[in-house]
Amino acid sequence: RIVIANALSKWVYSEPAKVTVKADQTTAELQDVSLYVGQAYDADAPFKRVLNKDGQAINAKDVQYYYVNNVLTKELDTTKPGTHQVRIVIANALGKWVYSEPAKVTVKADQTTAELQDVSLYVGQAYDADAPFKRVLNKDGQAINAKDVQYYYVNNVLTKELDTTKPGTHQVRIVIANALSKWVYSEPAKVTVKADQTTAELQDVSLYVGQAYDADAPFKRVLNKDGQAINAKDVQ
Q1: What are the pLDDT digits (tens) for 15-40?
Q2: For residue 8, is it within any domain?
């Protein structure tokens, strides 16, 4: 506070004034981020904790010195996979420069894949909805199971059920979203339900004393599930 003399030489006392010394909260803390080929780059994405002298958040649009790969720009090429370096420089309360540590921006290839394969099973077998999945991957290249696929079609009907009560051929296809939320359509896969042709039909035979016994002789019609003949040596 202060005391000064007035026109009558009397003292005039001021009210006290408070002087606050504040901590300079200027911070330039970045973080590594990743995105996918074709995605738009968000210049704010690497900002983990970027604050002005009063602790208020700063956006990229308010930062004059924003560098991508040591070039003064806020643009970043996302047309192909690659790794880029971002750093910023901001002024603190004393007008001195605060330099961020570099942050890494990784542009990743979109690995979304919907590749199916033809499969077969037999009448009465349970249908495994994953069986036609040859190479079905999400954007990061991780395998996707049928339970995680919303758009799964059997004979153009949205279902994961398939009739195995009788022989027939069915079509399966799927639709999944890629990194840009665009739809990726699989080629159709064929699921064949085959009749079980297993047969064990024998016949009477005769031979003479001293003749060698042929274990295949009684086999009139002995077939495996695919209708292929089975020999006695293959029967346990």
Answers
A1: 999 999 999 999 999 999 999 999 99
A2: no
| Interval 81-101: pLDDT, tens | 999 999 999 999 999 999 999
- Going by C-beta distance under 8 Å and a sequence separation of 6 or more, which residues neighbour residue 135? 113, 115
pLDDT of residue 196: 87
| CATH number of the CATH domain containing 139 | 2.60.40.10
126 found inside a domain: yes
CA atoms within 13 A on the CB side of 12: 6
Residue 45 lies in a domain: yes
Which pair of structure tokens corresponds to residue 207? 């031979």
The three-point CA angle 120-121-124 to 5° equals: 155
Distances (CA, A) of 17 to 11, 13, 20, 60, 142: 18, 12, 10, 37, 64
Is 79 in the same domain as 120?
Answer: no
Domain residues for the domain of 158 are 113-194
Q: How many CB atoms lie within 10 A of CB 206?
A: 6
Q: Which residues pair with 4 in a beta bridge?
A: 12
Whether residues 66 and 54 fall in one domain: yes
Maximal CA-CA distance, the chain:
155
